[in-house]
Amino acid sequence: MEYIAKRITIHPDLCNGKPTIRGHRITVETILDYLSAGDTSTEILRNYPFLEEEDISACLEFASSLLKNSYEVKNYHG
User: Fold this and answer.
1) Residue 45: CA atoms inside 13 Å, Cβ hemisphere, count?
2) Which of 27, 33, 62, 72 could form a disulfide bond with 5, CB atoms 3.0-4.6 angstroms apart?
3) CB 11 within 8 A of CB 2
């Protein structure tokens, strides 16, 4: 298992290789989806008691780091 950010891991046999939290079967994407839907960290932690507040912060840091890349849009017709 490879740690690619604080608490974020990628393993090809776990969740189809998507980034997960500390090797658990919960993806960064899932946590970000909950947050974007308006769930609070407290609600997420209540539903996933094996997670820690630092895990949620790591998901946000990971997503932020991905957005620091430059992206090029080709053939966009708006």
Assistant:
1) 10
2) 62
3) yes
d(CA 38, CA 18): 23
User: Model-level pTM?
Assistant: 0.83
For residue 20, the cross-strand partners are 9, 27
Beginning with the edge strand found earlier in the chain, give each strand of the sheet holding 2-5 in spatial order.
2-5, 8-10, 20-21
What Rg, from alpha-carbon coordinates, does the chain have? 14
Cβ neighbour number for residue 8 with a 10 Å cutoff? 22
The domains of the chain, with CATH numbers, are 2-66 (1.10.10.10)
Per-residue pLDDT of 30-61, as tens digits, reads: 999 999 999 999 999 999 999 999 999 999 99
Mean predicted lDDT score pLDDT of the chain = 90
